[in-house]
């Protein structure tokens, strides 16, 4: 994953509300990931159109954090999900 | 207060065109007359979602043997559940798959009995099954369904592991579950015929390790090693009554699919009592919940909160005592019984014939 990559949730992976526990979750085949505030903020911006750079800039503005740091964290987070095949690159 | 369940397995029916000798269904199968209606299942799905269940696995038997599969998937999605279909593929026509796609089915788990028609059809006890399954797999891929291949491995096919991985890649699966047969239900009647040898298992583990590294990001490999060769038990169901539940075809609510082999437990039916009450208050769910009930050996063990003493049904099947530590455990007295079974059943003679699930 690089800043120019466009992440997307593949079919069969989706975010949702766990209304009973009051949490946001990421659901995939045989997997339930409870999302913290950061994970939720990242995945809400994963739309199959925006690059990691755009997503990171937006997050940096929203949370008043240094962009370079945010970008490194976003890449790490999404690369880990990609390894589990819960995130793909829309740009191939 | 107990945790809330995350996943529910709905055994829609015990009917199945195949007759796999490793089937985890009970040796006493439930007939069609006793199966729940569409409306009863839909009600259970809603209750499950209200209780905290996020993922639903539609299983069987063969779930496609239910004529109302489409209605059931629709009801599950309306209840807000992530819906997974566990199927042999037999009975899923292209038209049915398209309808399931439109209804929002999230994921398909396709079982394979082998990578060669000859072996696969002998294991499944169904001539022509392999070819039909491959057609179904093509349609699944064409519709873009996320696919997991489900390969149950045993003495006769464990050496086909590389070809099984190739098949997963060829079919465009994102994930493969390589589960060495677990001895429950019909598999118990075929243990000697199915038990792999220690060498086979060692080779398989090495292969899986190498393939996982090689296929990283392309194919997720989940490997379930055969219990009997492990030193410590698995945390069966993540702990009894902690994260999951099963519904049998007639609505009986079970802490795990083999729980009915434990004779002193009585199980309640979802058509007679609300699911939440059964989960929280029924005797069967509380019998082995948590760790208070564990014997002294486990109480003083540092793995107590890791494996919760292992599988109750395995303790029952091997030792006749559902309250004993899982006999897989090296520290437990039951291990000697398991080792005896292993040495009797994996000697290098021709294995016995299969007892097919009928
Ligand atoms: S294991 Fe075989 S016989 Fe049992 S339900 Fe699955 S396909 Fe049918
Ligand atoms: S003694 Fe009990 S808790 Fe410890 S490993 Fe064995 S089964 Fe698990």
Automatic annotation (TrEMBL), chain B:
Q: Any binding details for the cofactor?
A: Binds 1 [4Fe-4S] cluster. The cluster is coordinated with 3 cysteines and an exchangeable S-adenosyl-L-methionine.
Q: Known InterPro entries for this protein?
A: 4Fe4S-binding_SPASM_dom (IPR023885), Aldolase_TIM (IPR013785), Elp3/MiaA/NifB-like_rSAM (IPR006638), PQQ_synth_PqqE_bac (IPR011843), PqqE-like (IPR017200), Radical_SAM_PqqE_MftC-like (IPR050377), rSAM (IPR007197), rSAM_sf (IPR058240)
> What superkingdom heads the lineage?
Bacteria
Q: What is this protein called?
A: PqqA peptide cyclase
Look up the record and name the cofactor or cofactors this protein needs. [4Fe-4S] cluster
PANTHER family according to UniProt: PQQA PEPTIDE CYCLASE, RADICAL SAM DOMAIN PROTEIN
- Give the GO terms filed under biological process for this record: pyrroloquinoline quinone biosynthetic process
What interactions and quaternary structure are annotated? Answer: Interacts with PqqD. The interaction is necessary for activity of PqqE.
Keywords assigned by UniProt, alphabetized: 4Fe-4S, Iron, Iron-sulfur, Metal-binding, Oxidoreductase, PQQ biosynthesis, S-adenosyl-L-methionine
State which pathway it belongs to: Cofactor biosynthesis; pyrroloquinoline quinone biosynthesis
**Among its keywords, does the record have Metal-binding?**
yes
Function as written in the Swiss-Prot or TrEMBL entry: Catalyzes the cross-linking of a glutamate residue and a tyrosine residue in the PqqA protein as part of the biosynthesis of pyrroloquinoline quinone (PQQ).
Residues bound to [4Fe-4S] cluster are 16, 20, 23
Reaction(s) the record says it catalyses: [PQQ precursor protein] + S-adenosyl-L-methionine = E-Y cross-linked-[PQQ precursor protein] + 5'-deoxyadenosine + L-methionine + H(+)
Q: What is its EC number?
A: 1.21.98.4
**What does the similarity note say?**
Belongs to the radical SAM superfamily. PqqE family.
Record PROSITE patterns: RADICAL_SAM (PS51918)
Q: What class of enzyme is it?
A: oxidoreductase
Record-annotated Radical SAM core domain positions? 2-218
As one GO molecular function, the record gives: S-adenosyl-L-methionine binding
What SMART domains does UniProt report for this protein, alphabetically? Elp3
